[in-house]
Structure formats: structure tokens, C-alpha cells
Amino acid sequence: xxxxxxxxxxxxxxxxxxxxxxxxxxxxxxxxxxxxxxxxxxxxxxxxxxxxxxxxxxxxxxxxxxxxxxxxxxxxxxxxxxxxxxxxxxxxxxxxxxxxxxxxxxxxxxxxxxxxxxxxxxxxxxxxxxxxxxxxxxxxxxxxxxxxxxxxxxxxxxxxxxxxxxxxxxxxxxxxxxxxxxxxxxxxxxxxxxxxxxxxxxxxxxxxxxxxxxxxxxxxxxxxxxxxxxxxxxxxxxxxxxxxxxxxxxxxxxxxxxxxxxxxxxxxxxxxxxxxxxxxxxxxxxxxxxxxxxxxxxxxxxxxxxxxxxxxxxxxxxxxxxxxxxxxxxxxxxxxxxxxxxxxxxxxxxxxxxxxxxxxxxxxxxxxxxxxxxxxxxxxxxxxxxxxxxxxxxxxxxxxxxxxxxxxxxxxxxxxxxxxxxxxx
Length: 425
Ligand SMILES: [Zn+2]
Hints:
Layout (H helix, E strand, L loop, with lengths): L1 E8 L10 E6 L2 E6 L7 E6 L5 E3 L1 E6 L17 H12 L4 H17 L2 E6 L10 H12 L5 E6 L11 H11 L3 E5 L6 H18 L3 E5 L13 H10 L6 E5 L8 H14 L1 E5 L1 H7 L15 H6 L4 E3 L16 H11 L5 H11 L1 H6 L16 E4 L7 H4 L3 E6 L2 E5 L16
Parallel strand pairs: 1-4, 6-7, 7-8, 8-9, 9-10, 10-11, 11-12, 12-13
Antiparallel strand pairs: 1-2, 2-3, 5-14, 14-15, 15-16
The protein binds zinc ion.
Zinc ion binds next to loops.
């Protein structure tokens, strides 16, 4: 007896097209292939040849700061402006307001096919542990629909914001899953280096992975934005290959090709992952350019070609850092494709991997991930029949399955009325 069987699911673009059945029991995929028609199941969904992916993963999302754009926009449009505006709004955070905004976006993400979110709540003397505590609470209250990993994120810096170190320790004691870092938001290079040492020491002490915002600038004229190599060195020193992720890394795109290749090579050797955040990076980057405005997105193709574990994510949804977004990994995937010259069917496969299998590795959840027997039954059924069309179509997420349970569905009908349908008088 299965809990759920997905019939006629398309899992590749083989020619001629073929489909498989996916049988689920106890929250785990029990069989992929031909499930006998008379197999007993509590629920059956007919995918009718539609594409099925493993659940999408948002590897980097600031749920605590989402949906702040209507309260106070970022008039300057810069990173400094975004930090300032958000710092002002953070003073008014209460558990109730953070919970309401975060839960709204979390549910959007689920409806859009996401089954795991790594959330980065601010931990600093302004917000205290308000965002962190709300995330820990949402991790429990929403665990049937989405896995939430909580990163203790020192947005205001550690050295620059006294008290943050103690708050980070307390966050990890309370159950944060990951220690965060924000190297660029320190006053000078020495402080940035001490920031890195602190983050890795906390990762050692609490036995957690590290996830740092790094090198978030148009270029590396300011040495605080050229720290990817230093973080790669620290990763090796602390034996943390495969357990360190960097968000943004936009300044890398502006380095000379040989220098860029050397940094990318170091990231690959050290086992440091990169998460591109194109919606934010495009919006905040290149603000000083008066001609040939930079795209400001990390060089995704070069990272992938060099074997750096690379993902992407929404980062922010409708706030001073990014006044756009729906917590939709396919929408951001299309944006990434368009801005990184990733336009071929093979490139689409790379982007789908970044949103699924690579993101699972980045979040350390790959051991039981995928569409195969034994994997956790996190799946999304898309209203399209070719994987190559997934980004361009951004199809309806017809059903979203979390540990074998349908947690979201989308049904809608669109008709072109070409005169055959009687019009109301
Ligand atoms: Zn971020």
C-alpha cells in the first residue's frame, strides 16, 4: 500500500518521450519506473507527461526582511542605502510582524515548488534575536510543508557591532543550523580577517556549516571585497571542504581573467560553494557606472566550468535590497539565464541542477535527495512537458509534494476567446 503514486511523470527529455511512475510510502520514494496499475495507493495523481523535478531549494533567503518595501523604499538604490533603510526598519521589528511577513513569503515559496529554504535572519544588536527566534519557531510550525535551515547572520558585521559575537553564540545555542558571516560590513581589512576567523571558530565549536556574504561589490578596488581566497584558505585550515557557502561574490566578475581564474580555482580546490543572487546583485550593482553598466553577477559559467559547486537563490523579496520577487526559483533561474548568457538546452539543465541537486549539496541535504528509491519524497509537478522549456514557461506548479504529502497545488484555466465563445450581451 503506497501513500501516493504519481503516474506518467516526465523526468528527462529523452526522444521519443517516455514517462515513469513514482510510488511513495512513509515519506520516501519507494519505486520509480512502472508501478503496476493495480498497486494500492491512498492517493494517485496523473501527471499526464508533465515534468517532475525534485523539490526546489532556496539556498539563501532573508525571510525576516521580506516585504518591507512598502514601509520604506531604498531611494539611493545602493547597497549602503539598503543597509541603512533596513537598519532603520529593523528597530521596529516585533515577533508578530516578522512572523507575518516571513510566513507569507515562506508559503509563496512552497506554492512555487520549494521544499527547503536556508533562511538568513539578521542577528545583531538592532534586531537582537527576534528574527532568529521567529525562524526557529517557523522551522517547527511549518515542518510538514518545508524544511527550514536557519543561519545566524551578522548583517551589521561582528567587529563593527559590539555584542554581535555573543548573540551569534546564543543563536547557535538556541539551535541555529548554520553560522553566517558578512565580511564586507567591517571597517577595515584586518577586521574583515578577524571576522572570518570568528565565523570559522564558531563553526568548529558548534559543529555547524558556514555561509558567508562575501565580495559583494562591483570590483575589488576596496580590498574588503577580495576575500574569497582568504575564506578558501580558512576552509582548508578548518577542514571544512563542502561545508562553506559564499553568497554574492559579485566582485569576482570584474577581476582580470587570469586573476579571476586563480580565485575560482582556489574555491574549487577548497570545496567552497558559491550562491549567485542575481535579483539583488543586478539591482544594487553598477550604480556608479555611467556607461557599460556592469551586470554585477558572479561569473556563473566560469564557476561551473571550473567545478565550483554553484547555486542560486532569491536572496531578498520586495525590500530595500531587492524591490522585486515572488520567492520563485524558476523566475530567478530565468533571470540568471538571461544575465549570464546561459541560453542553450544544456545551460537550462545546469540551471535546473543549481536549483535542485547542487542546492541540496550546498545545504548538506543531498544524501536522500532526488527522484530515486530511498530519497525523501520532495517533488514538484510542473505544467509543462519538456525540461528544456521549464525556465521559459515558468509553468504552474501543479502539485508540490513534501515528504509524500501534497502541500500545494495550482489549478487555473486560460482560454483565448477567438469568437467561438458567445459573448455576454
Ligand atoms: Zn543575503
